[in-house]
Design a protein that fits this description.
The complex is a heterodimer of chains A (about 300) and B (about 300). Chain A contains 12 helices and 2 strands. Chain A is mainly α and about 300 residues long. In chain A, helix 3 packs across helix 6 (about 150-175). The termini of chain A are far apart. Chain B is mostly helical. Chain B has a single domain (about 75-295), classed as Orthogonal Bundle (MetI-like fold). Chain B has a two-stranded antiparallel sheet. In chain B, a hairpin with a 4-residue loop joins strand 1 and strand 2 (about 70). In chain B, helix 4 crosses helix 6 (about 150-170). Chain B is flat, with a radius of gyration of 26 Å. At the A-B interface, helix 1, helix 3, helix 4, helix 5 and helix 6 of A face helix 1, helix 3, helix 4, helix 5 and helix 6 of B.
Chain lengths: ~300, ~300
């Protein structure tokens, strides 16, 4: 082998190693995230941590001088209520829009709508929060005669608008994945487009649509700035849409700056982080499994 | 032959009912799609109208003054520029090479599946968890302190999946025959990638990079505890006013601060900040979209 050949092989090997290293970096980062969040929060878990209190108590008094309590039930309820409301709005609208984009409109309109949806997805969460604060807040006060417009309703609407784009785009993919022969068979039998959608496409694409919904949920659960600004910062279990709440994410964002580094309070905030990490991971992996199942068929 | 023959092509009641339902369904779905467009237009218009009196060149180039109740956004604008720039420097090479690995080298086996799952999962980790990670890893463990460096690294890891996803798509769009032709003339794998695959997918990769920039510019939570501060005055007009180990202001964080933390801010100020932030992000995104459309129109294969 010539000298040039040797050098080429070495260069090739070097570059391939770098590429492989970058390739597996995503795994390293995911484990890194879990490791470092756990490293900061873990200590409190092994020091008579009250799991019962953590999950089932509504008492969140992290900086009380006499009896400190770390109960996240009210925060969980906050996240849950806002997410559920957001999904009640976003899933029908998202899937409806996906159906329109994929089945009813011509190529030009389709392109335009997809661009608008992409731009909608690009709006930063802090701007959404600002919109909740300055646009929806006075609107809710006027329409519902509520004392304050920063509440479950406000956060739910904002989160719905934020998670609709992902639902539309995944939902449209799911509808696109239904073979055209299904559509042709339906049309040949004399079905209208609505009958086709209702009887053929929706059943055929239901897994993909489910995955779209799940990804919307993951987006809503993990959202921070928008809910921090729009839900009104009161730790309680909401009994109506007009009650202010506070979510898990907002609690971390609001309190991490004030909690002394490596205090119990600081560590508990990291434990909430671990909880959020686990929730979104499980939801996302489930959605991925469902989508993969669809593709295999 | 006098008996009238029924017109067999006339619409039966059933057919009419079907037609009505079809129209109804169409209208409903159209409204649903329209309701996605309307908020975007309304929101942007409202923000711009409210911000208009404050927006000026001076607003962009002066520091916030009097406890952020007056002045402009210069130090926040420059801070965002630094954060995005450094996060791009880290995320772009690693992200592009990761996509090259996944599309060109990785075999279709369980390990590759795990890597793909990791990328999906990385994209789905909530931004506040990235913030916790950045604080625990870069600020505390690696001892970078709260700095532009720590914040950019956090942003880089958070936005990397955007680059990986679009680069992978761009690479996959290069026909396999191009690679085969190159291998057949004796090129190695890397030579093929370097001289054939990458040049043919560069626009798609660029789209991903642009989207990463837009994403990084808008994020607030990950930088809140890793390097962004409420207030910092810097020399006006000096593009090199921040050092890598300094803390900085950022547009997104500044919007959060003046709309929630500071009392008695004049009405137009947060609106103008929001419009600058939103304008920047939407403009960058529009660039990516234009690039993509242009690219599709001149595709050779």
């Amino acid at each position: 082998m010539t000298k040039r050949g040797h050098r080429e092989i070495i260069v090739e090997w070097l570059i391939e190693s770098v590429i492989r290293l970058c390739g597996i970096s995503a795994i390293l980062f995911v484990f890194g995230i879990f490791f470092f969040v756990f490293r900061e929060g873990g200590a409190v878990l092994f020091k008579d941590f009250k799991f019962g209190e953590f999950f089932f108590s509504t008492a969140w008094y992290p900086s009380s001088p006499s009896h400190v309590r770390y109960g996240t039930l009210a925060l969980l309820a906050g996240t849950f209520s806002v997410t559920v409301l957001a999904m009640v709005i976003a899933i029908p609208f998202g899937i409806g829009a996906a159906i329109f984009v994929s089945e009813f409109c011509g190529p030009k309109l389709k392109e335009t709508l997809k661009i608008v949806i992409e731009l909608l997805a690009a709006i930063p969460s802090v701007v959404w929060g600002f919109i909740g604060l300055t646009v929806l807040n006075p609107l809710i006060i006027r329409l519902f005669d509520a004392p304050i417009g920063l509440n479950v309703l406000n956060g739910g609407i904002i989160l719905a608008l934020m998670s609709v784009p992902i639902i539309v785009s995944i939902g449209e993919d799911a509808l696109k994945a239904v073979p055209d022969s299904y559509r042709e068979a339906g049309l040949a039998l004399g079905a209208t487009r609505w009958q086709l959608i209702y009887r053929v496409l929706l059943p055929a694409a239901k897994n993909g649509l489910l995955a779209a919904g799940l990804l919307g949920v993951a987006r809503a659960v993990g959202e921070t700035m928008a809910v921090l600004m729009a839900t009104g910062h009161a730790i309680n279990i909401p009994t109506s849409l007009l009650d202010p709440v506070r979510t898990l994410t907002a609690t971390i964002a609001a309190e991490l700056g004030e909690a002394p580094v490596h205090s119990d309070h600081y560590r508990v905030l990291f434990v909430i982080g671990i909880l959020l990490f686990l929730i979104t991971t499980v939801v996302n992996l489930t959605a991925d499994l469902i989508v993969r199942g669809v593709r295999k068929k | 032959m006098n008996a009238p023959t029924p017109n067999i092509f006339a619409a039966t009641p059933l057919a009419r009912k079907k037609q009505r339902r079809e129209q109804l369904a169409r209208a409903v779905f159209f409204t649903m799609a329209l309701l996605l467009v309307v908020p975007l237009v309304l929101i942007v218009t409202y923000l711009v109208v409210q911000a208009w009196p404050v927006l000026s060149w001076e607003f962009l180039t002066t520091n916030p003054k009097r406890g952020m109740r007056a002045g402009g956004i210069w130090s926040a604008l420059l801070g965002t520029f630094y954060l995005v720039g450094f996060s791009l420097l880290v995320a772009a090479p690693i992200g592009i090479l990761a996509a090259v690995y996944l599309n060109e080298y990785a075999k279709d086996n369980w390990f590759t599946r795990i890597v793909n799952l990791a990328v999906i999962n990385l994209a789905a980790v909530p931004s506040i968890v990235h913030a916790l990670f950045g604080l625990g890893a870069f600020v505390i463990f690696f001892g970078l302190g709260k700095s532009i460096l720590a914040a950019s690294l956090t942003l880089a890891i958070m936005t990397m999946p955007v680059i990986i996803a679009s680069t992978k798509e761009a690479l996959a769009a290069v026909p396999q025959s191009f690679r085969e032709a190159c291998w057949n003339v004796g090129a190695t794998r890397w030579q093929t990638i370097r001289h054939v695959v990458l040049p043919n997918s560069i626009s798609g990769i660029l789209t991903g990079v642009i989207l990463q920039v837009s994403r990084a510019a808008g994020e607030t939570a990950p930088i809140m505890f890793t390097g962004a501060v409420f207030f910092k005055a810097i020399e006006e007009g000096n593009l090199f006013a921040y050092g890598l180990r300094d803390q900085c202001m950022a547009l997104s964080m500044h919007l959060f601060t003046i709309s929630t933390q500071v009392p008695d801010v004049p009405h137009g100020l947060p609106f103008a900040t929001a419009v600058v932030l939103l304008g920047t992000v939407l403009f960058i995104n529009a660039l990516a979209i234009i690039l993509r459309v242009w690219l599709r129109s001149r595709k050779k294969w």
